[in-house]
Amino acid sequence: MADSAAGTSPVGWDWTKWWTTQRRNIAYSFGTVVLLVIIGGILKPGILSGSSLSVLAELASFVGFVGVGQTLVFLLGGIDFSVVWVLNAGAILIAVESAAGNGSLPGALAITLGMGLAVGLANGIGVAYFSIPAIVMTLGANGIVEGLSLGLSGGLTCNTCKDPPAPALLTGLNGKLAGVPGDVLVWVGVILLVSLLLSGSTFGRRIYATGVNPAASYLAGVGIRGVTVAVYALSGLFAAVAGIMLAANSGGASLGLGNPYLLESIAAAVIGGVSVLGGRGHYVGTVAGCLTLVVLVAILNAELIPDYVRSIVYGAVIIVIVLLYGREKQVA
Amino acid sequence: MLEAVDIAKSFGEVQALAGASFSLAPGEVHGLVGENGAGKSTLIKVLSGVLRPDRGQVFLNGRRVVVPSPAVARRLGLGTVFQELTLLRWMTVAENLLLDDLPRGRGGLVQRRKLADRAAAVLSSYGVESIDPLEVPDRLSLADQQILEIVRTLRRQPSILLLDEPTASLSAGQVDWLFAQVRRFRTEGGSVVFTSHRWKEVEELVDRLTVFRNGRDVATRERLDESEAVVLMTGRRLGEMYPPVPTATSEDVLLEVREVRSNVLDGVSFSVRRGEILGIGGLAGQGQRELFLTLFGARRAKGGEIVVGGQRRRIRRPKDAIRSGLGIALVPEDRKQEGLLLPLSVRDNLTLPVVGRFAIAGLIRRAEERRHVGELIARLQVKTTRSGSQAVETLSGGNQQKVLIGRWLLAGAQVLLLYDITRGVDLGTKHDLYKLVAELAEAGHAIVFYSSDTDETAHLCQRVLVMREGRVVRELAGAQVEPEAIVAASVMETAEV
Amino acid sequence: MSVVRRSRWSYLSLQQAPLLLAFVMLGITVAAYVLFFDLRLHHLPTAFAWDSTISNALPLVFVAAGQGIVVLTRSLDLSVGGIMDLTNSLAATHMHSSVPSMLLWSLIVLAVGGATGLVNGLLVTVGRLQPIVVTIATMSILQGLAAWVLPQPGGNIPASYTNILANSNSPLGLVFIGVVAVFWLLLRRFRLGIALYAVGNDAEAANALGINVRRIRTSAFVLSGIMSAAAGLFLAAGSSGGDATGGDSYLLASFAAVVLGGVSFFGGRGSVIGVVCGAGVVTLLVSVLFYANVNSFYESFYQGIFLIGAVLLGMVVTSLAQRRARGSLRRSRRRW
């Protein structure tokens, strides 16, 4: 998945070398999804219906958008805590700016995506140029965006704050094409794009190289600061995209919209075999992680288990998964 | 006294020790010699409890012992100075020295003032006056850190002292200090295991030595001359090690450096011609590393000019150096930390600096890339698949070094800065690398070469610049290029500039 | 000739620059607090104002001290907020106004914190997992457990308990801060304290020196768990009740206090005393913003700015101190 060309060489074909840890982890995570869907189908057959599956795919897509950024940042050995409020601010911005109607939609999209990009850029500059630890920089940025979102919207009490976004956005993302919801189609596009970026582009090469060993990459002429800034900028951008999707899906913004997505995006990446130490993993794995999470929750909800159990199960699943294949070689 | 029998240890597919034995007699200094990778360090780590052997037994005073941890080793009376420094960088020298024996007062509390005083007393009892007990190792020179490490081990009064390459960063005077300490230790009844890559030191210090090769002991002798030792260690004769020095015929200056300054460099000027191998000599830590990094743009210069192929260039980062007309490339000493991206494929490692050349709009054209990679793998005879999809960490050290040099050939760099590229490479591969360096010079590259082994510099280079305190203090050319002359120029008291 | 020694002050300024900076920042924040208080209310802060500020600071002082210890060992603990969630909920739902009940439940709560820390520590050391992944997972589990224990904010904390742990009419809070400080100063001088630094400096080297790295790293998580549980008790006492999400905001704040306190995120450098100052700064900042008439919606904005600003300031100070040290080192070499 990550890289199919290596195997096609006439001389170099060797199954054991193609079957890397990375590919194995991705296969494991898709195996987990399939297993969960089967379990779900047995426990509650309704889960397997078309409409139910499309809802699940939609739910997974929201985590998936945030997960793009978290995956890329993980590949560099960083982490992005600012996704929570960038997402929330994105939802508020798209609703407020496009409340006037379809004519205002392009401008609103530009402002919203621009906001995400700007916060990500700031994160990247702080991490790359001022060597601020990623956790501190992105937590700080999260606070800043939270304060500005609450302050400028008066705690979401402004006139247009509760309005739904422009109708075109709603119909575009909530409508279905051949039974597939619009936002899921967008996600499929994003999956293809990000996979191409990671596996087939020079930028992807540089991301992996920087994540594996920044010093060696720098000495090989990789502009590691530029790569870092770009990656955080993308993370901000995709958090804003998730905000737009959620605002469209729920017909408006609300406070705390982004709260679940920090844990879920991290969980999805970790379940998908992306290492927080950098250099290992692929977005395709994260996609499997997103699906695992939503199917798991669907099964739990189907069994009428209270909400807090979901939180406990998330935590437990993360630990079990990393114990299974996320262990470090040796800690002294 | 201490005896190791048939010790084996593997790391993945690499067998570091394949049944090595040796025995240490009471009151002797026992040298372990062998190529890098012969298993000396691994054996010392096994004896010190850092590594667990896969097989084999250790006997101490005739009794079989198991050494599962460094703490146990210490209790058994073994004191080790490891090749990698184990100082705690931001804790004080005093805390580092007395970590296992902190002066306690009432209720087990550590007494800070006493700690510093006692540390000062310990240091001066070993004749070390220049290290401040309240300083932190992070701010000490490498040599001082090594001395501190040695004092810390000696202070515990072990009955057996294991020294793994303790002299690598020491100056001549400091080596004398160490030898005096070792001899004192021996007269007081201790036994010592000593490894060094400097044959003269081994000859001077040891009573007996054991030669290692490929993870096994091949001979134990009381006396051994160098050429005999080389044959034992490698199966090769000494004279065959170095290829003939290429004769630089071209007058074409590829790189000219004028008055380059930085925090460490104090106005360095020189030029290198096409086909020339220019050696940089001097004691360790006189600014050589800084010079290489500055020329490559990895350190900021404060002044001076760098002229590449007749044109002045601003080089502020490695990317600039790689793209500066003829192309400047650096092969660093520590290929695992600074050179290779170990878990990535041979292909990724080879094409990383120039991957953009195989791409259209940022997307890599796989076929194009594979073609170049395949050609290069064939040309350098790297032992891997043609596609280069194997992870570079699974290659042997020599093949890894080839990948690293191959990267810059692919990038088309004409000026190669080779910084201590044979460090940690076994003798056989060293030979291959010498040949490669000479071939590259003959093929028209300009090479700036530094090695921590003065012999290498003397045998490979046509011209040698000796550095001291960030300046070039002497230039040796032609018949002057002799190891003795380089060493003499390195330690000369008055500089001739 | 005797061994070279430099003056005590020179070490203090070179090695403890971040700690000194923490003291200076605490001083500045206290001054700003007094200033804005006076501007707003036209008199200096009363004893009551000071006492309630101090008791407000207590949860953060404790949780940040625990976080600081973990960060010193080059790790981090994202579950501190979750531990506070669970522990304050436990206290609010189970504690009765009898001395045995208060004592018993305080101990149980601290034990719960310690046990959580132990689980974190064992997963990190024995399980060989990344601290960031482990503690974010346990955070989620703890938040779930807290919501199970206390589905709605509420519960009850005995008034007498509040009077001891969160008394706004007496400077009792200073005693608790003193306890943290003394605890740390003592710990720093026991073998465990020194080992914490050693592990944070270089775990491999510490191992080669015979320090049991796993045990030390686990101990740091256990201490953090206990401290966070104590913070949960102070939180419950201060609000006379429980809230299953009440601890969440303390995660960011604990990092802010650690950073402001001059503890290096790369481990091995810094002091919990600095972290206590940092916690003071973060708490006072909220009051300063309040008296400066800043809309409370913007609170986290200023906290974020302050967090990033503090890191940058700390870096500048450290690099200046190091440059001075390098300069003097080079000069002394030349003389040789």
With strands numbered from the N-terminus, the spatial order across the biggest sheet of chain A is: 1-2
pLDDT averaged over residues of chain C? 89
Oligomer: heterotrimer
Number of separate strands of chain C: 0
Main sheet properties of chain A: 2 strands, antiparallel
Can you walk through the features of this model?
The complex is a heterotrimer of chains A (332), B (497) and C (336). By secondary structure, chain A is an all-alpha fold. Chain A has 15 helices and 2 strands. In chain A, helix 3 runs parallel beside helix 14 and helix 9 (182-200) packs across helix 10 (202-212). Residues 1-12 of chain A have low confidence and may be disordered. By secondary structure, chain B is an alpha/beta fold. Chain B has helices at residues 40-47, 70-75, 93-98, 112-125, 142-155, 172-187, 199-205, 226-234, 288-295, 318-322, 335-339, 346-351, 366-380, 397-410, 427-442, 454-460, 483-491; strands at 2-11, 14-24, 29-34, 55-60, 63-65, 78-81, 160-164, 191-195, 208-213, 216-221, 253-261, 266-273, 277-281, 303-308, 311-313, 328-331, 359-360, 363-364, 415-419, 446-450, 463-468, 471-477. The longest helix of chain B has 16 residues, at 172-187. Chain B is globular, with a radius of gyration of 24 Å. By secondary structure, chain C is an all-alpha fold. Chain C has a single domain (53-313), classed as ABC transporter involved in vitamin B12 uptake, BtuC (Orthogonal Bundle). Chain C is globular and about 60 Å long.
